[in-house]
Amino acid sequence: MSDIPAIDIRHITKIFGDDPDTALALLKEGKSKTEVQAETGQVVGINDVSISVARGQIYVVMGLSGSGKSTLIRHVNRLIDPTSGEIEINGVDVLGMNLDELRNFRRTQIAMVFQKFGLLPHRSVIDNVAYGLEVRGVGKEERLAEAAKWIVTVGLAGYEESQPHQLSGGQQQRVGLARALAMNTEILLMDEAFSALDPLIRSGMQDELMVLQRELNKTILFITHDFDEALKIGDRIAVLKDGELVQEGRPEDIVLRPANAHIEEFVADVNKARAIHVRSIMSTDANVEKCEIAVPYSSRCEDVLPLFAEHDWVGVVDEEGNQIGYVTAKGIIKALAKHQSTMETTAV
Amino acid sequence: MEPFQIILWLVIAAAFVGLIYVTARQAFSGTITLVAWLGMGLLTIVVALYNPISGDFFPEIINTRPLRFWVDDGLEWVVRYWGDGFEAAAHPLLLLLINIEKVLLAIPWWYMVVIFTGLAFLATRRAGLPLMVAAGLIFMGMMELWEDSVRTMALMIAATITAIIVSIPTGIFMARSARFRKFMVPVLDLMQTLPSFVYLIPVVMIFGPGKVPALIATIIYAAPPLVRLTDLGIRMVDPDVMEATRAFGTSPRQRLFGVQIPLAMPTILAGVNQTTMMALAMVVIASMIGAGGLGYQVLQGIGRLEVSRGLFAGLGIVALAIIFDRVTQAFGKRLQARIGLAEKVS
What we know:
The complex is a heterodimer of chains A (348) and B (346).
Chain A: E1 7-16, H1 20-28, H2 33-40, E2 43-53, E3 58-62, H3 69-76, E4 84-89, E5 92-93, H4 99-108, E6 110-113, H5 125-129, H6 131-136, H7 140-153, H8 169-182, E7 187-191, H9 199-216, E8 219-224, H10 227-233, E9 236-241, E10 244-249, H11 251-256, H12 261-268, H13 272-275, E11 294-296, H14 301-304, E12 313-317, E13 323-328, H15 329-347
Parallel strand pairs in A: 3-8, 3-9, 6-7, 7-8, 11-12
Antiparallel strand pairs in A: 1-2, 1-4, 4-5, 9-10, 12-13
Helix pairs in contact in A: 1-2, 7-8
Chain B: H1 3-25, H2 30-50, H3 65-106, H4 109-124, H5 128-142, H6 146-176, H7 178-193, H8 196-207, H9 211-235, H10 239-247, H11 252-281, H12 283-288, H13 294-303, H14 307-338
Helix pairs in contact in B: 1-2, 3-6, 3-8, 4-5, 4-14, 5-14, 6-7, 6-9, 6-11, 6-13, 7-9, 8-9, 9-11, 11-14, 13-14
């Protein structure tokens, strides 16, 4: 059961326009998005994208505006229906649902946070947070108690009776987040949830999301145009361009081995020490004795760097605490620099 | 027309068609095109003034007299056979109007002043508007216009209530169905632009002169803005909010009553305000067919060349308009501020 992906999107294609079938046939013949648009006037939003999100993962879909990322996430709860393809959530075919089943699915299985918040301006904060439960049919007392709990969790205690327009952007998005979390669903969709916020507030919200995720262990599909954000919170990242999947993998796969020039452009500006996990560059010489200090294998280079002020060797341990390798200052610098130099050669 | 005239006008018409063509093709720069249009207009006016055609302004293509007979006979038939049915159907309207009138006239004048002043205070939480409302009502009483004012008020309130009952569901349905909207927009245009006498005549023929035709005419004239603004208000609800509520699995009914109508409320209230104003604008015409009230005083003033009677009754209508306009607007603004769509009431 547990090896079924939480979200499984297979070969989704979405064509906007009044005659999607003709355009779909042309796409199958191998024509490009621009050719199809020139010939039929139909806009290809997403072209044959497949992604699979394992349970408990934060999966980031990254792309610039117009890349189709927001269209893609809307397929998961069928705010948009695909032209072709399959979508399964926990093994259940979403596209086969009728209207009632779909409503029930949205009420109980999946919650969403929006870039523009989408709060109900005529309701107080607590009524906004309780909205999903109200739609589900939960009694007033129960849903208000649940909502109050989540308002405290997202740090808005004391604002329960405020109206959304009295709050700052960051606070409004906390309401949006609390509203989604109050649904207590396993899957959370976040569509550019932090993109409308100021950089400092955004960074704070990212940290809080990761702290929350450690407790809640939800499956989160996160959309962003910000590569740094993707690297910071993503367990896996998919990069979309012009409606097509360009590269998919762990953050360091993308930083260390960008699939094409488009992704290299993103990589050029990122903090690689944050992107690269120690596990992907550690030496695994089995004969090395146990190091004085060790970090978990999910640490990133930037977490390890301060330790080299005192130590020459830093061990890397797995979940059980067994040392599975080690890193040195030299090794890390090499990893970061090696990457830099390949960047420069490809850029020339 | 003489042959010379025919040729002259044919040449001008041909030049005009040519001008349309070059304008559509954007063959010349904007300035040249504009000058050409002005020249064309001037030429047409000059030729028309110095070389007018005479008589026979439009040739008879078909004989339309049967169509007129058909319309007139049809209405007569409706009046003869369906008149009673229409009257029975409109009876609730009459009851509504009579009872509102009865209640309003049964209230002592000072209590009425208290009611309206209180509502004005609730709407603005300031002294200005309540004072104005009280002054307006007392003015009407002192000018011996109290009973007429109350009858006019009753007509307006009855028309507004009926318009609300009919218009809001119509507007909601328009917002949800593009096809229905396509059908309704010209109907609403017709209701607002057709001179009211055109439908007053058949309505009076069916119901006979009295309160009911006056009320119906007022409703026809006053309902369209409320329909339009309800439709607009529902469609203007932030699409991001609508999408968010869809994502939570709401049913269309939950969205309509929980989100769309509450968020459209300020716009709908603006429509109610428009409807009250349009209803007041109809009172003089309505009084011609037996509605009574302030409009009747104005009518009498005109008939007897008593300027004072017309003037004071007219000022009474203005006072009523100001009271209802300001109070409903203030309530609308309050509501808007509460849901954060506008700045606080200033």
